[in-house]
Specification:
Phosphorylase Kinase, domain 1, 7 strands, Kinase-like_dom_sf, globular, 400 residues, 5-stranded antiparallel sheet, disordered N terminus, two-stranded antiparallel ribbon, alpha+beta, disordered C terminus, 2 domains
């Protein structure tokens, strides 16, 4: 989550966790977004469609400036933190709303992300970066665009330059855990990569190497196994040709510097595929990763992503790029592990889910029954025809 300044008011009430609390904060976030849109003079139409996020409250909507996305951070805390720390009763909704407005007015919520987007636009001079429409009261509003699956004919054949770009990205990822970010090349185009490195290293050290977080990691995923898991993912990326600029764009989502990489030629690359709705390879990767995370058992410690990818590659339709799915899954998993996110948000999943009852077998059965509609996939209508993950294992836990 982007570092925020300003007060962090304590949440009132008694300790409770679960969907009820999230419903309360969801209501507060929606009202905050509506208030911000009025402040910006943007006429919009209901409904505000939820874009799944584990850190903030994100909504897509139609407006007089076109389709847009609004992102709201509640009290400067991730949603999982709000669930753990907040005890909220329904009669306290008004108090929470007032606290949120006071916090948003006194803080720089989303300011760094807005600056990051404008920085990217200035460096790249391209429409690949979402346009910032406005920022007010801690709500960031950007222009939205539905991603589309490129046709096979539009995809470039991997060449030497693509391989060099892939090697560059892998080297950057490896250096995140080995060297200070200052070791990166000090070029204008690499400024975003330095910001990415700073963000990833800072998050990794803060959330994995200090105090109770370190004890949590030692309990859930021993550090040696974590290192091997990340190393395995980097190797997966290294063996996967870097997607061409024709098939990769920066799309709306969590607008953090550490979610952006620049390839050679200053082409923007997306490191967090969660919000790339409509791009079928992205949809499949997101679905498999999050369903897999809900399927984790206490006895499974080491991520076996390569095994899952190998089984997946043999079962995708010919018009989909299995290697690109693998690339998305690997990058997504690196992002998940380094941000220590808790994936227990029911809003991310189709229907009503009990995470304790989800198994890899039920995931495989569900995946095998999903189909695309009209060529462009709905977020949960995925082009997975006969994917059966068998007894492939996933890590035991991500968030506390």
């Amino acid at each position: 989550m982007t570092a925020l300044s300003g007060p962090e008011p304590a949440l009132p009430g008694t300790a409770r966790t679960g969907p009820f609390i999230d419903d309360v904060f969801e209501t507060v976030a929606r009202e905050q977004v509506r208030h911000a849109l009025q402040q910006l003079g943007i006429a919009f139409s209901e409904p505000l469609t939820v874009i799944p996020s584990v850190t903030s409250y994100v909504y897509m909507f139609e407006s007089d400036v076109g389709r847009a996305v609004a992102k709201c951070s509640i009290l400067g805390k991730a949603r999982s933190s709000l669930r753990r720390e907040g005890g909220v009763r329904a009669r306290e909704l008004g108090e929470i709303t007032r606290a949120q407005r006071e916090y948003a007015a006194a803080s720089s919520a989303c300011l760094d992300e807005a600056r990051g987007l404008r920085l990217l636009t200035g460096i790249l001079g391209t429409d690949a970066v979402p346009r910032v429409i406005g920022l007010v009261d801690g709500v960031l509003v950007v222009a939205a665009e539905r991603a589309s699956t490129p046709s096979v004919a539009d995809r470039d054949v991997p060449d030497e330059k693509a391989s060099e770009a892939s090697a560059y990205a892998v080297g950057l990822l490896e250096r995140l855990w080995e060297y200070p970010p200052a070791r990166l090349e000090p070029t204008d185009a690499d400024a975003v990569n330095r910001a990415h490195a700073l963000g990833m290293v800072g998050t990794f050290r803060r959330k994995f190497l200090r105090g109770r977080h370190r004890r949590y990691v030692d309990r859930v995923v021993p550090s040696a196994e974590l290192a091997r898991g990340i190393s395995s993912l980097v190797e997966t990326i290294a063996r996967t040709p870097w997607p061409s600029s024709k098939t990769m764009r920066l799309v709306y989502g969590d607008f953090k510097p550490e979610h952006v990489l620049l390839r050679e030629g200053a082409q923007p690359m997306l490191i967090d595929p969660l919000p790339a709705f409509g791009w079928r390879e992205c949809d499949i990767a997101r679905f498999l990763m999050r369903m897999g995370l809900l399927s984790m058992s206490d006895s499974s410690r080491l991520p076996l992503l390569e095994r899952v990818c190998a089984m997946l590659a043999a079962r995708l339709p010919d018009d989909l790029d299995a290697r690109l799915v693998q690339w998305f899954m690997a990058m997504d998993f690196v992002n998940i592990y380094t941000t220590r996110v808790c994936f227990q948000d029911q809003n991310q999943l189709p229907g009503s889910w009990d995470s304790g009852s989800v198994t890899l077998e039920t995931v495989a059965q569900m995946a095998s029954g999903l189909r695309t509609t009209g060529g462009a996939a709905d977020p949960y209508s995925l082009a997975v025809t006969t994917a059966r993950l068998g007894d492939a294992s996933c890590p035991s836990e991500i968030g506390a």
